[in-house]
Amino acid sequence: xxxxxxxxxxxxxxxxxxxxxxxxxxxxxxxxxxxxxxxxxxxxxxxxxxxxxxxxxxxxxxxxxxxxxxxxxxxxxxxxxxxxxxxxxxxxxxxxxxxxxxxxxxxxxxxxxxxxxxxxxxxxxxxxxxxxxxxxxxxxxxxxxxxxxxxxxxxxxxxxxxxxxxxxxxxxxxxxx
Length: 177
Fold this sequence. Notes:
Elements: E1 8-13, H1 17-31, H2 39-42, H3 44-52, E2 58-64, E3 67-76, E4 97-105, H4 114-124, E5 130-136, H5 140-148, E6 152-157, E7 166-172
Helix pairs in contact: 1-3
Keywords: Acyltransferase, Transferase
GO molecular function: acyltransferase activity
Protein name: GNAT family N-acetyltransferase
């Protein structure tokens, strides 16, 4: 297995979505191969287009010898409308937020450090004060991984009727090394 630190990391923006869209869909299909019959999982192309349609969209894809391993992407939150706000009163004074929508690694490269490399690599380029993400509450190991990276759970929400219940997790930027 290739060591994650040797990945070729490539950054993409909103303008690159037509070029990378199929790669994002292919990695997702591999990562969720055991749940492709789930209606919420099937809506993933809509989420790619929704997030990629944001002018501030930022994506980092890792490649191993030209093969996509995984990616992390998101976009800046609209000031004052960040979806973590309902859980914190008062909100932190420094509250410009980057919303991390997806962090996905194909099964073959899991447990190699690729997820950390992609996550940290994407957020290292950000100048916001905070990063927020959501994680399925039925995935406590994934939540624990994010906690090990400095996130804290601030609440739970179900953003769509067919979505799982998610833990809303927040961290300050820049991330500690």
